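call fold(seq) -> tokens
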Amino acid sequence: MNNQAREYIDKTIEKVKTQNPFELEFHQAVTEVLNSLKPLLESEPKYITNNIFERIVIPERTIIFRVCWMDDNSTMQTNTGYRVQFNSAVGIYKGGLRLHPSVNLGIMKFLGFEQIFKNALTGLNIGGAKGGSDFNPKGKSDGEILRFCQSFMNELYRHIGATRDVPAGDIGVGAREIGYLFGQYKRLTANFDGVLTGKGLEWGGSLVRKEATGYGSVYFARSVLASVGKEIKGMRCCVSGSGNVALYTIQKLQSLGAIVIACSDSKGTIYNEHGLDFNTLIELKELNDMELKEYAKIHTKSVYTPTKDYAPNSRHIWSIACDLAFPSATQNELNLNDAKNLVANGAILVNEGANMPTTLDATEYLINNGVLFAPAKAANAGGVATSQLEMAQNSSMTRWSFEEVDKKLLEISNNIYTIAYDTAKEFGYEGNLIIGANIAGFRRVADAMITQGI
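ret:
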């Protein structure tokens, strides 16, 4: 790599770390993306002369606000709300809202930064954003969640709109929360428009939206396997997590003939060598919000391992021998020790369903040991793509069938794979989907920024 490009990347990464201290996840995301763009900078120095890196790592707008709400004991509670509108070069801001105690500015910036390139890869006109709060909906009553969502929207509504910023759901934000948020937005603005996605089917939502991220993840994995002459049917799979992404990854894998032998939640891991029962998982996790340990009481030949029994510095699910690994829970859930376990047990593909679930050293180890790797911004883009399809239906005041939306999702997922694969090949890194996805997403956004001026 020429010195100018190397110095520019190093300088930008160091500047990001200096200007954003303690935001480790954001540092990680920026480092991964910028380092993978080396081949592009060597061949097209215009991105250096136009200072794109220094511009693209700073959000266009960061909104931080106080959220006060009354709990069921009539005690005033206070949380912090965020909306990071990161980049609108190729379209309106688009990205989910996360409600979780871990939420802070650094997490929001990492997610928003990743969202820029994920959204660009879809080929749709949507820019990158992310938002949420450190509010924890677990253990809260419906009334408490309602009052929090209304207070949150009392500020957020000023900054969003159908042609400006359209948030969606994420961890802790499902159909119930979207409904409460939308109702308050409508109350404040007197507008019924597509300002949120993930809406109820009766009032503007799209079929397949709930399943989209999981389905798209599996469609992408199928394309990766096909490139090396393999298919999903008969593959033994581990899927971390038990939220929407994980559950519908499991459903689609099973529909294609795979055997899903393990999944997890924050309290432990469930394993059955003959495969898990999807209907039981849905009943426990989606319908009743129960812990996975209850699964073993229903299916007594299954083995439940609580987190207290995990090996040090590792997650039990990644020590289970499998062919395909789908980390679909949260960021940095698969570390170097986990990667070594997967390699030792013969895994052939790691397909990221969550956002940045694999640490940088684990990713490097997996690739260096011949494991196929599908990065999140390409593999899990199905959710945001279907959000845009919901927006399209809202704009045209129509509703498409499940089959129509699923067909479009499949086409988008296949196109993302093709773009990532072809771009990696263009720069001499055939098969490296990290480099291909990052260059393809970055190039689309950066070119738009250049043509739009300063």
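The radius of gyration is 21 Å.
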